[in-house]
Batch of 2 targets.
Target 1
Amino acid sequence: MHKKYRAALFDLDGVLVDTAKYHFLAWHQIAESLGIVFTEKDNEALKGVSRMESLDILLSIGGLNLNDEHKKELADRKNQIYVEYISKLTQKDILPGVLGLLENLKTKEIKTAIGSASKNTPMIIEKLEIKKYFQAISDGNNVSKAKPDPEVFIKAANMLGVETEECVVFEDAKAGIQAAKSAGMYAVGVGMEEDLPGANRWVTSLSELDHEILF
Ligand code: B16
Ligand code: MG
């Protein structure tokens, strides 16, 4: 029999909601203003990565080297565009299988937390009306080291009062899987096995997950 876990930690973008398309549209506008060609394929490298690191990746694609003041201005502008998009999110944008899993975890009294790189986490979960399902939120506002560093998930486990080995992490980004594994947690990759090396198991959507195996 599989080990049963006491806590579930959820990445936000790409696991609970598909905000990657809005990140892409916002970065695309910034890229255009700089004369950089930025494709959806390029955008894959930005998933799970912090805002400033994402900008650095974008600038390296364009071969640009800008000063910190200019970079801050671009990151702020990108965020304004992104916030405009996510202000329209509703419960309908929650990804398939998420609400069923959260309800099941609540019934089983499994602890739940968010572990996201996004500083916009509070706004997104409010728009999706899912705040009530989580006992802790560890996000870009309280974490200093970005994924693949395990800090975001270790903080989430501490907030929940559980050991790291008692946690399952749901992640859609390579850096997030690395973070979960470095934290000593069980990692479920939401996506394709070839894109998410090192996970313990993979599902293409949470609607495919057999909850009973883990909780
Ligand atoms: P923000 P996650 C991440 O969210 C996104 O995947 C990544 O593309 C984004 O750059 C990062 O949040 C920071 O987001 O600009 O809103 O602070 O996947 O860790 O939930
Ligand atoms: Mg993600």
Target 2
Amino acid sequence: MRIDVLTIFPNMVSDYCNESILKRAQQKKLLDLRVHNIRDYATDKHHTTDDKPYGGGPGMLMKVEPIDRALRKVAGRTLPPRTKKKQVILLSPQGQFLTQAKARELAQLDQLILVSGRYEGFDERIRSLVNQQISIGPYVLTGGELGAMVVIDAVTRLLPGVLGDDASSVDETFSHSPDQIEYPQYTRPEVYKGKRVPKELLTGNHADIAAWRKKQYRKHPSSI
Ligand code: SAM
């Protein structure tokens, strides 16, 4: 899968993605990550990407022209692209919340283009350049880079071949339902400060273990 990120802080995204599983996903050519600096698409000599809001108010807004120019280069001539296999996504607290189901949906695509904001937000016309807006939760961050990294991480680990064992992402928290958490898991030692590993897990009987695990699924504390 190809993922492009538009940001004014490209190193934040590249540094995070050049470690651990995301690094290996790139080495294995399962993830083609390209990080673009929006400043490179500003045409004035100071490479300005922000300006004051019309009507006044605190802070600055991301300007529309550099983002439009960057998207035309990265996403192609038609904006937002008509193909369903390529989506331009704006990271914004105003967007739909990212869920595991959404991550699975995005993992089916060929290309994601993530637009990360800063300052007080975006010139409203930027919203018409994207296919969808995603929020990583009901709170406001200083910038969209963390949001972009969360999307990249949640989506990449669902791509076949990225995890050591693809089954790891099949049976886990949220994978069966948005309000269910994974069964409890244990590793050695068998007894720690008087707390024992449940005896059902020590039998070696796969059917019994599967039955025990099925009974252990619990409600997520935030479920309604
Ligand atoms: N004034 C904006 C509002 O009320 O909607 C918030 C702007 S925020 C300070 C700056 C940037 O951080 C946003 O444009 C967005 O790209 C990013 N951001 C903030 N919170 C986010 C969230 N929950 N999910 C995704 N991106 C977020």
